[in-house]
């Protein structure tokens, strides 16, 4: 039992079962999740350094929405729906690119300024006069926090990102992530499971000793999780400078330079900051990264993330970052396999729910957050798919 476990009191009536299995393969529930869990909550789109120069943009297609993040000519990073106001085409088609001083819709050629206002329609005399604002690109809620660009597709229950993330501000502030630069392109990968299975595995470290030999080698017994509270959780470990059963670990601890830019207690820390519902910002002494997941269907999930480095990275930091990435890559592949095995079982009649350890409170508290938003997830048996939204809203209004 580590220090953290001792400090967290687990109620007697603690439900060890987790969400019922039907929640992992209901299309009707997925529609509710897309709206209330994803669109109405802050999502990390990228880091400022993914769009470093005026005209740089990235796009992000998730949960039936298309986001465009763009740096305008004044250097301001803006977010828009990537939806032409003429007939809804994508205004930019690529994942990433640069536009000179305007965006030209590839369908009929409407032109937008980089601040989103309409510059003009093609063949403008075929229309009545078009108001530049009214027919401008629709803005997204956008907030930059410590260099990360957060967007929201619809208003929701969370406060500003700064308020939400305040409990992490001091510690994460030590890393000066706003000054970091992209260490590569944003990455995506598709995994054949429900998005919650991805999160369930990521939300607990109980499996580390068994399933992640490299991480276990690296951390020894220093790893602990904290549960979700007000939409945030945190996991913390320090690496053991004498570790080394694995090649990548042995070389990492040998090469990683003393992180004198960080306070003593963070110099060997690997920290994971969980952000409800679907994202993590993770730091090691030489890099920061984010990763997240979005449902593509009940049984398919888009994994997405980015890695950032110090702009004045030394050779040693670079080598350490490469080795840390190798450790992460192995860990992620192991996690994908675990999520597949866990998720597959949920369509079987023999699956009777989880039976969670006291160490898996990260899973439990994440499920609690979900149930607070979508109380239909409390029902042991699935309502009829056609009644899902109605049953959920009745339960929601019945809440004390
Ligand atoms: S849809 Fe964009 S110009 Fe027609
Ligand atoms: Fe894992």
Q: What kind of oligomer do you see?
A: single chain
Structural class: alpha+beta
CATH fold title of the largest domain = Naphthalene 1,2-dioxygenase Alpha Subunit, Chain A, domain 1
Q: What would the principal axes of the Cα set say about the shape? A: globular
Largest sheet: 8 strands, antiparallel
CATH H level, superfamily name of the largest domain: Naphthalene 1,2-dioxygenase Alpha Subunit, Chain A, domain 1
Small molecules bound: FE2/S2 (inorganic) cluster, fe (ii) ion
Number of separate domains: 2
Q: Which residues sit in consecutive blocks of at least 5 with pLDDT less than 50?
A: 1-13
Q: What portion of residues is helical?
A: 25-40%
Strand content: 25-35%
Order of helices and strands: HHEEEEEEEEEEHHEEHHHEEHEEEEHHH
* Number of helical stretches of at least 4 residues: 11
Radius of gyration: 22 Å
Mean pLDDT: 94
How many beta-strand runs?
18
User: Under the CATH scheme, which class of the largest domain?
Assistant: Alpha Beta
Describe the structure.
The longest helix has 30 residues. The chain has two domains: 280 residues, Naphthalene 1,2-dioxygenase Alpha Subunit, Chain A, domain 1 (Alpha-Beta Complex), CATH 3.90.380; 113 residues, Rieske Iron-sulfur Protein. Helix content is 28%, strand content 25%. The protein has eleven helices and 18 strands. The radius of gyration is 22 Å and the shape is globular. It is of the alpha+beta class and 400 residues long. The two termini are 36 Å apart. The structure holds FE2/S2 (inorganic) cluster and fe (ii) ion. The site of fe (ii) ion has 5 residues, from helix 9.
């Amino acid at each position: 039992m580590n220090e953290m476990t001792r400090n967290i009191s687990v109620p007697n009536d603690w439900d060890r079962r987790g969400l019922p299995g039907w929640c992992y393969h209901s299309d009707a529930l997925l529609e509710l999740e897309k709206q209330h869990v994803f669109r109405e909550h802050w999502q990390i789109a990228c880091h400022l350094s993914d769009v470093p120069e005026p005209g740089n943009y990235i796009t992000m297609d998730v949960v039936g929405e298309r986001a465009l993040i763009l740096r305008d000519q004044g250097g301001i990073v803006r977010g828009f729906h990537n939806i032409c106001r003429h007939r809804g085409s994508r205004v930019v088609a690529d994942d990433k690119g640069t536009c000179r001083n305007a965006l030209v819709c590839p369908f009929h050629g409407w032109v937008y300024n980089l601040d989103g206002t309409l510059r003009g329609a093609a063949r403008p005399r075929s229309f009545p006069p078009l108001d530049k604002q009214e027919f401008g690109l629709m803005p997204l809620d956008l907030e930059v926090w410590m260099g990360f660009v957060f967007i929201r597709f619809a208003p929701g229950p969370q406060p500003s990102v700064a308020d939400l993330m305040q409990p992490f501000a001091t510690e994460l502030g030590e890393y000066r992530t706003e000054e970091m630069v992209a260490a590569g392109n944003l990455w995506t990968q598709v995994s054949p499971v429900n998005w919650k299975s991805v999160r369930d595995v990521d939300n607990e470290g109980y499996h580390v000793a068994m399933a992640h030999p490299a991480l276990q080698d690296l951390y020894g017994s220093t790893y602990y999780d904290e549960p979700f509270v007000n939409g945030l959780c945190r996991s913390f470990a320090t690496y053991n400078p004498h570790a080394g059963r694995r090649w990548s670990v042995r070389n990492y601890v040998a090469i990683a330079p003393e992180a004198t830019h960080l306070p003593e207690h963070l110099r060997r820390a690997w920290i994971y900051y969980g952000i409800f519902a679907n994202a993590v910002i993770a730091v090691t002494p030489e890099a920061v990264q984010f990763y997240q997941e979005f449902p593509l269907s009940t049984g398919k999930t888009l994994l997405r993330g980015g890695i950032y480095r110090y702009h004045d990275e030394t050779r040693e930091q670079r080598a350490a970052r490469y080795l840390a990435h190798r450790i992460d890559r192995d860990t992620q592949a192991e996690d994908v396999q675990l999520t597949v095995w866990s998720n597959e079982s949920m369509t079987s009649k023999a699956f009777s729910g989880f039976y969670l350890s006291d160490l898996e409170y990260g899973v439990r508290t994440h499920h609690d957050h979900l149930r607070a938003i979508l109380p239909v997830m409390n029902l042991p048996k699935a309502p009829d798919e056609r009644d899902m939204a109605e049953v959920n809203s009745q339960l929601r209004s019945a809440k004390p």
